[in-house]
Amino acid sequence: MSGEHTLKAVRGSFIDVTRTIDNPEEIASALRFIEDGLLLIKQGKVEWFGEWENGKHQIPDTIRVRDYRGKLIVPGFVDTHIHYPQSEMVGAYGEQLLEWLNKHTFPTERRYEDLEYAREMSAFFIKQLLRNGTTTALVFGTVHPQSVDALFEAASHINMRMIAGKVMMDRNAPDYLLDTAESSYHQSKETDRTLAQKWSSAICDYATLRPDLIS
């Protein structure tokens, strides 16, 4: 396949941030807006980005330009804290946090001991992220290692960047969701090995953890 066939050309209005921001007051000075811009993507990576007039000559005649003028194009969003097992219970009512956990969250998370169910919900979760412009996320699974396996499996099918891990809980939860420091360590180590360093441990709410599990 020639390089031309892997090239995508996108035209439209773009806005992004040109540097890492440590202070919200710096955001305005770091914003970049291009009213009529061009983005060239080759094999999933940015090949060129800038003003349309400066880059249009780089587009081969055989490439169709995706024209989104009149729309605003932004980089993918990054969600730094999200629980994918709670996808199906969004909006579930609870007067207090503990009531909500015991009535909705814990019973829902129990279902992720079933690998096929975890796979089904992982696919749904990732589709929802992408529908809303999120292309990278730091994701909590459940205490079940297979919940993480299913998530990475779904993400790998579309080459999506994902940071995730099994949740560790050894108190203040039903017995069917509790693990120990030792079991969490060994399960995390095994998942780390099988996923070839693509996995990262995730620790749940401190209310469900004893100090020895954190250490």
From TrEMBL:
<dbReference type="InterPro" id="IPR051607">
    <property type="entry name" value="Metallo-dep_hydrolases"/>
</dbReference>
<dbReference type="InterPro" id="IPR032466">
    <property type="entry name" value="Metal_Hydrolase"/>
</dbReference>
<dbReference type="Pfam" id="PF01979">
    <property type="entry name" value="Amidohydro_1"/>
</dbReference>
<protein>
    <submittedName>
        <fullName>Guanine deaminase</fullName>
        <ecNumber>3.5.4.3</ecNumber>
    </submittedName>
</protein>
<keyword id="KW-0479">Metal-binding</keyword>
<dbReference type="GO" id="GO:0005829">
    <property type="term" value="C:cytosol"/>
</dbReference>
<keyword id="KW-0862">Zinc</keyword>
<dbReference type="GO" id="GO:0008892">
    <property type="term" value="F:guanine deaminase activity"/>
</dbReference>
<dbReference type="GO" id="GO:0046098">
    <property type="term" value="P:guanine metabolic process"/>
</dbReference>
<feature type="domain" description="Amidohydrolase-related">
    <location>
        <begin position="73"/>
        <end position="208"/>
    </location>
</feature>
<dbReference type="InterPro" id="IPR006680">
    <property type="entry name" value="Amidohydro-rel"/>
</dbReference>
<dbReference type="InterPro" id="IPR011059">
    <property type="entry name" value="Metal-dep_hydrolase_composite"/>
</dbReference>
<keyword id="KW-0378">Hydrolase</keyword>
<dbReference type="GO" id="GO:0008270">
    <property type="term" value="F:zinc ion binding"/>
</dbReference>
